[in-house]
Amino acid sequence: MSKRVRHTVAVITAAVIVLLGAGPALAHGFTSTVYVHLTAGDGGHVRTMLELEYDLFVVSAADYEDDDPLFKAGTAAFDARDTDGQAAALNTHAESAVTYVTERFSVTSDGKACTPTRAGDFTMSEREGVPYADLLLDWTCPAPGDGHEVRSELFPDAEKYVTGTKTIVTYKIDDRSGSAALDADHPSFSTGQSWYERFWEFFRLGAEHLLSGIDHILFLLALIAGSRRLREIVLAATSFTLAHSVTFMLAALGLVHVPARVVEPVIALSIAAVAGWHLWRIWRRGGHAADLKTEGHGHFSLDRAGWTRLGVVFCFGLVHGLGFAGALGIDEAWSWTLLWSLLVFNVGIEVVQLAIIAVVFPLLAVLRHRAPTAGLWATGVISLGVSVMGLVWFVQRVFGG
């Protein structure tokens, strides 16, 4: 094996080790999302409805406000799945809970801070089977302005309970409506910002969501490893894109709803299945696993196995789209602004997918050409690692591990 080939194998192996070594820490479920609905209130006030993941909210507020009774009552109600008890715990210790929020979430008008007032008791809701606490705040602003700025630093990484918290804001105020995505690097936005600034936020959110979702990356890696020709990975990626785009849009617009407890295990199973497909071909055909049975015949020059694989990828893509939609959780009436935000989010996902394909597939192609045996081993090792990880996640997600 030449030095160049050995170097290529090393690069591919290192990439796989980095991805697999990240493990579940980068899979879905280890971040939190805050949802904010911003509207114009009565008497010139600004009204915000915040939805916060309950157990995280209780632990964070109790810890940073030194309110041990809130922690005991809140966690006991959470463990007992007592919705009334959860709301009661927050309302009994409302001062600590509200203070935690208002020290990390703010609204300003014309550069001047607005003053928050709690409007009503805490109530409970649910998102994807997870309890959420709902807090309604009215903000009194000293002077009206052309736009309002919202800033969120809720559940920061420094608190060490979660990483990468995102805040999804939907707004209808200042004669404008739309959505915005905030995180630690971009914690604020103004309702007066331009359309391209708002859309850039969703492009970035889509790209970051794929990069932080190791399960989706491993699925893509399994597709690349099992693709025998450039046309196969192009068709597979196109099929996956079309499928997940359809369900992503339908789910994000609220037209389709499938519980996360169903979606997440199927996503994990799809990873194992697509990677296992290539392992099965290696076991059945050995060194001929990369051969096409009907080279140059039929549409797109795919053989029966290629078409079957394409159908499987499309079906799994439908499920992955539901997983992508869960990153947003937007509950807003139809609007063209919302549609464009969702499309830009999806484009962010696609750009990252194409970048991964552009880096990994040429490396494998060069390796297969220069050292077929080494190429077969490399794709086999990748597929085996991805398949095992997918099966582990499937078991964890089915049994709640």
List keywords for this structure.
single chain, 401 residues, alpha+beta, 7-stranded mixed β-sheet, 4-stranded antiparallel β-sheet, 12 helices, 11 strands, 56% helix, elongated
Q: Could you characterize what this model shows?
A:
With 401 residues, this protein is α+β, with helices and mostly antiparallel strands. Helices cover 56% and strands 16% of the residues. It contains twelve helices and eleven strands. Strands 1, 2, 5, 6, 7, 9 and 10 form a seven-stranded mixed β-sheet that branches. Strands 4-3-8-11 form a four-stranded antiparallel β-sheet, with no helix packed on it. The relative contact order is 0.13. About 6% of the residues have low confidence.
From N to C, what is the helix and strand string? HEEHHHHEEEEEEEEEHHHHHHH
Distance between the termini: 43 Å
User: Major beta sheet, specifics?
Assistant: 7 strands, mixed
Average pLDDT, to the nearest integer? 80
What coarse outline follows from CA principal-axis ratios? Answer: elongated
User: What's the tally of helices?
Assistant: 12
How is this fold's topology laid out?
Layout: H1 3-22, E1 33-40, E2 46-53, H2 54-64, H3 68-79, H4 83-92, H5 94-102, E3 105-109, E4 112-113, E5 115-118, E6 123-127, E7 130-140, E8 148-152, E9 166-173, E10 176-182, E11 188-190, H6 195-212, H7 214-226, H8 230-252, H9 260-285, H10 304-325, H11 336-370, H12 372-398
